[in-house]
Amino acid sequence: MSSNIIVDKEKESAQIGNINVKLAKEYEVNANWMGNDLASHQLRAAWLKLSEDDLPMNPRLVGKPGVGKTTLAVAVAKELHSSVYLMQGTSDTRPDDLIITPVITEGKQISYVASPIVTAMLVGGVCILDEGNRMSEKSWASLASLLDHRRYVDSVIAGLRIHAHKEFRFVTTMNDDSSVYDLPEYIQSRLNPQIFLDFADIETEARIIRYAVPYLEENLLTLLVSFLAISHKYEENYSVRDGIQIAKYAQRLKSLNKDLTLPKALKASVFSILGEDALKYFPPDEQMQNDPQSSTRPNLRPV
């Protein structure tokens, strides 16, 4: 880190030359990765430094929404005992949003606020740029010098060149859907390796949902993960994140109405969260009620 940078994490500020910059808040969330071991191994390898002068790589985590890309990044960052900073990418993210933003204080003075990316650069933490392929090329261009051997960004507004701490690490998550930008080649070449995440298998989904919703009734969990597994066979993008929300709401519905059967509670939750089309992946009510395990049988088909 440059000698003219002084970071005070307790005061959440940094002095860069003669300019004081307010730091972004750390992203504090519990993350327990229970998904693909290969994906976590690949991310650890990308961030591994094999010598003092070695630089960590800038991987991209690619997959459908809700498969756990951000959770994986946070979990591996915590293994490194690193501070984590989350930056949300959107279609209207500007280059200044990614670096330093000026704000007017009550005394009508200009104050500077560092983005989560720059904050992670200053403190030697991990920055997760979430849904990076929702950003335009113009925004990505402002990060090009950070993502190669130069490891710095320029703030035109503050008139600063900011070099990254040697322990700074970067990862971007990218949703695999149609509502995103195609990244230019010069940016793609800086965001490697690509690490792909797919839907978890039924046993893993059950463990994740049980961990997130520990009060969920066992038969309700059985019905839910079977529903998710069947929907995956028909290439529906219902994720374990959807499953967690469905589980929470279904259990609440059941708790408020003791006469409500588990299948009806689950179907009401699925209808509210995923919509009517998702109900075709359930067997008849009588079959679900009489034998919750029947929904895992191989001959089950959408109705």
Automatic annotation (TrEMBL):
Show the InterPro entries listed in the entry. Answer: ATPase_dyneun-rel_AAA (IPR011704), CbbQ/NirQ/NorQ/GpvN (IPR050764), P-loop_NTPase (IPR027417)
Polar residues: which segments have biased composition?
287-303
Q: Where is this region: Disordered?
A: 282-303
Q: Name one Pfam family in it.
A: AAA_5
All residue ranges annotated as the ATPase dynein-related AAA domain in the record = 61-190
What's an example of a GO molecular-function annotation for this chain?
Answer: ATP hydrolysis activity
- PANTHER family per the record? MOXR FAMILY PROTEIN, REGULATORY PROTEIN-RELATED
Q: What is this protein called?
A: AAA domain-containing protein
